Amino acid sequence: MASESEALELDTTDVDRWLGVPLQRLQPRYPVSESDIGRWAQAMQNPNPLYYDPDFAAVSTFGGIVAPQSFTVAAGDGHGATPAVQGRVPGSHMLFGGDEWWFFGPRIRPGDLLQRDTMLFDYRVTQTRFAGPTMFSRGDTTYVNQRGELVGKQRSTAIRYLVDEAVRRRSFGESAPEPQWMPDELASNDERKRAYYRLLHTNGHLARSFATVEKGEVLPERVIGPHSVASFTTEHRARPATVWGAAYYTDGPTGLWDAGWISEMGRDFDRATYDPSANDGLLEGASRGHVHPEHAQLIGMPRAYGYGSSMGSWILDYIENWAGEGNWTGHLVAQYRNPAFVGDITVLSGEVTEVVVPPVGSGRPFATVAVEMRTQTDAVMAVATAEVYLQGAAR
């Protein structure tokens, strides 16, 4: 006999009609600026001078400031998960479950203005420890610059679940107390972060060569945090479209605003006509649990928590900084398993798992890099695999 929680069902009857439908999107109004790119690097705690130091960038491969690949998500609505949240599922909320990225070569530079196309790709429902019946839905976003060049494609996974069941189960609850850091622990953590910063400074304009990369090569440790409401707020505000008036909604249908959110997570579009904070995405709306602990607890989180899109960006930055100037990630698959909670730190590690040389005429060589993100308690936050294109001829 099924238990009460096993008998719960997600009402997905409204979701099917959104599959494959071109959607309304939030379109940036202004071109990308140097300060947009620098603000993004600052928010992602990425001290690579290529993204904020015009003198350093002027003598780089690019001849000036260029955006990290992670900035692609910021050039749209800032998250990429919106096309995966279509159709009304009453009493639900969502978490970011992962990203798959394809990059096609063109880089984002100051003056670029990207357009996007979005749609719901597919979904499935399964049982999870976190909330019982849970939908894993995937949505696609393509990013095209003003020259018609395809910059990237993002396939994001949204985890949609019943709020009441997640709150009842308290899967994070007691197992995720906020750490209390001692001064000596914070000092040690800061030194680990600065070791990575110094390495970037020492590397300068170095670009890793395909001919010298070996299977088993270990990437340097990168530490981020401790995370805080201030750091999460900085991440959100670094997305240009979050500035009042900096973006507009295109014509077209969307099921995002009537997705079945609980009332505390809704937006007031009528009030937004004279009070922009009502459609702010941070102060109000479905994302407010990221920075308001009381709203985080309403949806089954123990305290304020970070953005999935930032997790993907940390991974992309980590790989790009290792690869060096002019090298780039062509394909990335990332799964997000635990959020970054207030008070936690994030530790990134990586390893070259393969050096691939396809037959002549069937593609360019690449290195496969595996990345893990863990907390200070060794809980896995994310795992990812990337195909990285490097300079130099194949061996």
Provide key terms for this protein.
395 residues, alpha+beta, Thiol Ester Dehydrase, Chain A, nine-stranded antiparallel β-sheet, two-stranded antiparallel sheet, 26% strand
Question: Could you provide a short overview of the structure?
Answer:
The protein has 395 residues and is α+β, with helices and mostly antiparallel strands. Helix content is 21%, strand content 26%.
Would you give an account of this structure?
The termini are far apart. This protein has 395 residues and is of the alpha+beta class. The radius of gyration is 21 Å and the shape is globular. It has a 9-stranded antiparallel sheet with strand order 3-4-5-2-8-11-10-9-6. Helix content is 21%, strand content 26%. The chain is built from 9 helices and 11 strands. It has a single domain, classed as Hotdog Thioesterase (Thiol Ester Dehydrase, Chain A, Roll), CATH 3.10.129.
